[in-house]
Each structure stands twice: as structure tokens, then as C-alpha cells.
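Notes from the 1:1 (GR / supervisor)

We went over the backlog. Supervisor wanted to see one worked example end to end before approving the batch request, so GR pasted a single chain during the call. The sequence is below; no edits were made to it. Supervisor asked that the structure be written out right there so they could see what the output format looks like.
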Amino acid sequence: MFDFWWRPLLVLGGILVAALIVGMVLGVNSAVAVLLLGVLAYLGYHLYQMAALTRWLEQGERDGMPQARGAWDDIFYGLERQLRRQKRSANKLTAVLERFEHAAQAIPDGIVMLNGTDQIDWFNPAASRHFGLDDAADRGQFIGYLIRQVPFHDYLAGHNYSEALVMKSPASRDVTLSVQLVPFGDKRKMLISRDITQIELLEAMRRDFVANVSHELRTPLTVVGGFLETFSDMEHINPVDFRRYSDLMQQQTERMRMLVEDLLTLSRLESPQNRLQESEVDVPALVQSLYQEAHSLSAGRHHIELVLTATHWVKGNPDELRSALGNLVSNAVRYTPKDGHISLHWEVQGGEVCFRVRDSGDGIEAHHIPRLTERFYRVDRGRSRETGGTGLGLAIVKHVVTRHQARLMIDSQVGKGSCFAVCFPASRLIAPVTASVPALT
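Structure output shown during the call:
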């Protein structure tokens, strides 16, 4: 404090001494004049420095600090030091805000910052996708004007944000969102959104799976239970009727056994602990074996052809590959009408080798094809049961194909038949360990 005040006091003291000396030499009036002029000059100097400080503050320039001497030099130096500290703090704050904004933009969840009147202050790219917001047009808009759904308006007005709201995305009706408002600060809110479309689909698949398993098991159990109840009420059982009823119960029991085995197979394929046990699989020999099995299943009802133009073996699990490729062959036999044509191919296509099953069946409508590998999905439920399918075969095929980094391709036209192909990448192919002779039958 003393360092600041001694300069003004020294100047004023000098003016007073000069006035006293002039007064002793020239008289009192001259002394007063000198004193007045000195004070006015000193006051003018301060007014000039104040004007320079005012101009500098108005311009807001960090550089170009006014130069001065004396007390004003201390003032300007102190202000400059404060500005440097403020600039460093502002730079740190800006860096923190930039890091926060970059992090918020990278978050897959949507974030919308709302002010005290529920107007949008800021949102990240994920929120833009979830709600269809436009950065240029929607900032400052009331969130209720942009999300025009009654459940959301009720949620916003209810002020009970402890639970999340599940709603359809305003930008896409195929997307399901979980949104939750989080109050913070002075009446501000943060709207957080998460895309739960896949979770909802998985939950729907789980519900359908449980319902389908229950339905598939209920029918054979009802049949077997009905026959057993009939037997218990009969005092004397006709051997012919007993044999007929026993055959029907055997069929239903076999159907349940197949269903349970397919469920266990799916469970094993989906288990992360079930690593793929690989070996060298002689696919040409496997395809020839499936060709013979197709003849046995067909029992002469179809024209079946085998085309082997590739000799490649595959690195994979022989049991899983037999199950997957065998499912495709048995499906072709089951769903191809009598006197239809079925062909099995093992052939090279580009950099891949493909196993193909072509049939001349009824074909499948295009909208069914993407869902064929879903569990229990049936194009014709009644027809599938008549042919003895469990509804899990193509789901098993899809899992096996995925485990072997292969591709399942389905091509079908109504009235012209279908083609199911499993194509193995070059990384899975190996030269035949023993010579396989291509065959054309």
C-alpha cells in the first residue's frame, strides 16, 4: 500500500514546496497561482490516464496496454498481471469445455441440454440422430415442439423423472429409444436417450422363443397324454387299436426328442465356452454321403443330382458341418413336391468354394427370406409340421456358418424353386489330403 501512495504524495509535496518558494520570492498571489496550476496539471495527467484506461477497456484488447509512470504504472501493471491470469484460466476452461464437448459428441447415447424453460441449449450428434434435431434451426427451441408425442409430453410435464420412458424415435419409427430427464443446476435438465432397438428385438425374440417352445411341446404332450388317459379308462384294449395308438405316440415322442436335440444343439453353438474344434474335413466325401442320405429320405419320389466340380477340403468341425449341410439337404427333400428335381453342388465361385442345394419346389416369397434363420419361423406353419420339421434347422445352419466365417445365401422365386448356398472363404480352404475324384451323377 505504501509503494502505491508514496509517488502521488511526493508529487503533491513537490508542487506545494514549489508554491512556497515562489511565494517567498514573488508573493502570495504567485504562490497560489503556481499551486493551482500544479494541481490542475496533476489532475489533467490523471484524467488523461483514466481516459487511456477507459479506451483500452472499451476496445477489449489484451495487447497494447497503455504506458504510464508513477502510480498509473502500478495500476496498469497490476491489471496486465490480472489479465494474464484470467487468460490462462480462460484457456484452461476452454480446453476443459472442448474435451467435454468432444467426449459428449463421441458418446453413443444422446444428450440434450435444456435450460430452465425446457429450451434446447446444446445437443450431441447421437441426440440429433435419435430425435431428428438440426443444429442450426433447433437450438433455443422448446423441446416439446420438436418431440410431438403424447407420452413424452406427459413425461416432461409430470416432473417424475426417476424412471426412463420407452418411446419410438421421432426420426425413425423403426428405432426404439429409452429416454430419461435428469434435473441439475438452476432448473436445468439433461435429456439422455439410448437406442434400445436391438434389446427390444432380443426381448421379443425371447418371448416368441418361449411361446414357440411351449406351443411345439404342448401338441405332442397333449396327444400322448390323451392316449394314455384313454388307455387308463379302457378295461380291454384291442391289440390293433393299441398298435395304432402306440405308433402315433411314438411319432409324437420322436417329434419331442428331435425338438429337444435341436434346442440343445443351438444352446451348444451359442455357448461362448464351446470353442470350435477344427480338423480337416473331406467335403467332397461329405457331400457324396449327403447325396446318399437324400436318396434314402426321398425314397424315389424325386430326381436327385450330384455335381462335384471342386476337390477342396475345409478346415472346420466335421459334426457341425454335417449337421448344417444335412439340414439344407433334408429341407430340400421335405419341401420339394413329388417328381421334383434336387441337385447338390460343391463348386468353385470366385475366391470361394460353395455347397449349393437347388430344388424345384414351390419357392419362397421375398419378404420371408430375411427371417428364415429365426428360430421357429415358418413360411407355412401347417405344412412345416406335416413334413416333420422342428423350425430350428436353419437357425442351426446360420450359427454353424457364422462359426466357420462362411456365408449363407438364399435365393428363391415362387413357383420356380429355391437355392440355399454355404460359401467358404479362401482362408478356410485346404488342398485335399487324399485325392478326391470329381464326380458328375
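Supervisor's comment: The first helix runs from residue 2 to 26.
Batch request approved.
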